[in-house]
Backbone:
C-alpha cells in the first residue's frame, strides 16, 4: 500500500478513498497498541508536535495529546487564552515563533474556517486540523467512520443518519464527505432552521421527522445543539427541541432491526439524547472516544512518515 | 532480475525437522515457552514448526503469537515509501515465559532488535531466543546471532533471499534473487 496523498490533514475534502482506507487500517493496528499492558511505541520519538487551541476543547485536545504521547512525540501545548495572540500577534507570526523552536507538526483548532489551509501555505510544518469553525473536523469524521466499521462491519452501503444541529456542525460536514467517499448512504435530520438550505446538493437525503430517520438508518449520529454558536433563536425552546428531535427509548423500542447510536460529545443529556439511550447497548459513544486516540495516532504516524529525513 | 533456487522442498523439510528437535531439547513440553512469529513472514515458519511438533514429535500444546514490529523500527522516515503495519496477536502473557522469536530470514538483525523492544510492551520474558530458518551470514549490522538456525546462506547486499511456502506460494523453496542495480 502506498502512503498518504496529502502532506497535511486539513479536511476530508482533500482525502481520497485510498487515504481514508489507509488511515482506518492503520488505526486498527494502533487500537491493538493502546490495549497492550504498555501502551507506548517509540515511533515518533524524534518528532515535536505543537497543539494550538484557539478555541475551547476538552476531549479532542486530550485525545490528541494522548495519541502524541503514546507515539513518544514531544508535545507542547498552547491555548489562545494565555498567549500573545491577546497582545495582537498575527497567526503566522505566532506559529512561526513556535516553529523556530523546531516543531515538526501542528495540531490546530481555530474558530475561523480555513485557518489550517491558510497556515499550511505559510509555514513549514505538517498541519492537522482539529476543527476550524463550522467547516471541518476531519479526525472526528475518521473516528466516527472507524467506529461504524467496527460496529456494523462495513461503511459501503451502510445507512447513516446525522441528526440535530447540522448548520453549525463541522462534524456533520466532515462526516457527510467521508461517508459518501466510502460508499455509505447519508441522511441529515433536524429542524429546518438547523439544516442548511442547500444540503441536498451534497447528495444527501434530508428528513425533518426523526422517527422516519431512525426507521431508515443503520447508524444514527446524534449531534449536540451548539448553543454557543447560535447567535439567533433557531427553535422556540429547549423543551420544544427535546420533544421534536430528542432521541428516546420510545423511538428505538419499536424497531425490528439493530441500530447503532453515536454522539461526538459533549452530550447534552436530556436534550438531543436521553440518558437511557446514551447508556443503552445501542450506544457506542465511549467506543468512539477510545477509537479517537487510535485514529489520531494513525493520522500523526502517517503524516510524520511523509516528513522524510533528508540525508543529503 | 534472475531467481535461483538454493534450497528445495526436501532440504527445507530436513531443516524444519532439525529445528523442531533442537527446540524440544531446550524447551521440553513447551509449558513455559511461547513461539512468536515476526510479521509478516515469521508466522508461516511458526505454523510449520507447530504442525511438525504436534504431528511428528507428539508435543501436546505449543503456545504461539504474532508480533508486528513496524512501530519499533529504526528506519521510520529514513526509507522511501510507506511502512505498512501488520496485525499483532499475543493472546498469552509473556511475563516470566521463555519467548522464541521466529523469522524466515535473518539479515541485518535490525528487525530482531525492534522485536526485543516490542515484546517488552507485553511484559518481561524470562528469556528471549531467536530461531531463523535462513541465516544470511556476514551481513549483520548489530551484534545479534540466532540460537537456532535452519540453513546458512552466503549472499551479498544486492541479493534477496526469499522463502516460499506451499500454503501461500504453491511450493516450498528458498530462492536467491539478484536485484538489478
Residues:
Amino acid at each position: 500500500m502506498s502512503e498518504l496523498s496529502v502532506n497535511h490533514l486539513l479536511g476530508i475534502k482533500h482525502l481520497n478513498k485510498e487515504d481514508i482506507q489507509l488511515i482506518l487500517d492503520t488505526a486498527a493496528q494502533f487500537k491493538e497498541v493502546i490495549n497492550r499492558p504498555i501502551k507506548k511505541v517509540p515511533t515518533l520519538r524524534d518528532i515535536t508536535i505543537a497543539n494550538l487551541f484557539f478555541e475551547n476543547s476538552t476531549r479532542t485536545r486530550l485525545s490528541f495529546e494522548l495519541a502524541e504521547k503514546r507515539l513518544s512525540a514531544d508535545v507542547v501545548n498552547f491555548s489562545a487564552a494565555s498567549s500573545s495572540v491577546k497582545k495582537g500577534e498575527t497567526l503566522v507570526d505566532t506559529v512561526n515563533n513556535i516553529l523556530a523552536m523546531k516543531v515538526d507538526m501542528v495540531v490546530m483548532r481555530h474558530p475561523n474556517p480555513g485557518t489550517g489551509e491558510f497556515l499550511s501555505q505559510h509555514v513549514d510544518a505538517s498541519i492537522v486540523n482539529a476543527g476550524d469553525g463550522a467547516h471541518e473536523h476531519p479526525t472526528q469524521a475518521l473516528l466516527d467512520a472507524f467506529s461504524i466499521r467496527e460496529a456494523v462491519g462495513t461503511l459501503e452501503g451502510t445507512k447513516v443518519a446525522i441528526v440535530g444541529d447540522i448548520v453549525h456542525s463541522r462534524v456533520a460536514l466532515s462526516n457527510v464527505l467521508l461517508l459518501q467517499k466510502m460508499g455509505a448512504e447519508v441522511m441529515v435530520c433536524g429542524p429546518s432552521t438547523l439544516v442548511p438550505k442547500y444540503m441536498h446538493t451534497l447528495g444527501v437525503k434530508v428528513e425533518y421527522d426523526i422517527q422516519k430517520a431512525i426507521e431508515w438508518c443503520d447508524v444514527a449520529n446524534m449531534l449536540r445543539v451548539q448553543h454557543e454558536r447560535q447567535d439567533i433563536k433557531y427553535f422556540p425552546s429547549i423543551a420544544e427541541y427535546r420533544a421534536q428531535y430528542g432521541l428516546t427509548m420510545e423511538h428505538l423500542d419499536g424497531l425490528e432491526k439493530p441500530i447503532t447510536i453515536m454522539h461526538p460529545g459533549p452530550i447534552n443529556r436530556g436534550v438531543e439524547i436521553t440518558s437511557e439511550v446514551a447508556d443503552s447497548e445501542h450506544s457506542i459513544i465511549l467506543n468512539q472516544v477510545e477509537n479517537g486516540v487510535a485514529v489520531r495516532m494513525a493520522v500523526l504516524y502517517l503524516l510524520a512518515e511523509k516528513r522524510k529525513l533528508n540525508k543529503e | 532480475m534472475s531467481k535461483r533456487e538454493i534450497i528445495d522442498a526436501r532440504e527445507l523439510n530436513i531443516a524444519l525437522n532439525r529445528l523442531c528437535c533442537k527446540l524440544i531439547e531446550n524447551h521440553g513440553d513447551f509449558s513455559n515457552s511461547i513461539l512468536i512469529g515476526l510479521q509478516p513472514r515469521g508466522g508461516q515458519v511458526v505454523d510449520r514448526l507447530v504442525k511438525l511438533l504436534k504431528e511428528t514429535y507428539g508435543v501436546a500444546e505449543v503456545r504461539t503469537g504474532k508480533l508486528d514490529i513496524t512501530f519499533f523500527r529504526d528506519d521510520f522516515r529514513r526509507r522511501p515509501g510507506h511502512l505498512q503495519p501488520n496485525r499483532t496477536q499475543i493472546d498469552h502473557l509473556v511475563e516470566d515465559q521463555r519467548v522464541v522469536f521466529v523469522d524466515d530470514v535473518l539479515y541485518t538483525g535490525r528487525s530482531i532488535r525492534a522485536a526485543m523492544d516490542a515484546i517488552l510492551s507485553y511484559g518481561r520474558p524470562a528469556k528471549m531466543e531467536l530461531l531463523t530458518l535462513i541465516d544470511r551470514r556476514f551481513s549483520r549490522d548489530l551484534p545479534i546471532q540466532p540460537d537456532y538456525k535452519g540453513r546458512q546462506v552466503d549472499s551479498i547486499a544486492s541479493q534477496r533471499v526469499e522463502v516460499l511456502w506451499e500454503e501461500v506460494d504453491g511450493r516450498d523453496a528458498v530462492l536467491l534473487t539478484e536485484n538489478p542495480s
Notes: The helical segments of chain B are 9-27, 42-55, 110-119, 166-169. The interface with chain A takes residues 68, 70-72, 76-78, 80-88, 117-118, 120-123 of chain B (CB under 8 Å). The domain at 10-73+85-154 of chain B is CATH 3.40.50.2020 (Rossmann fold).
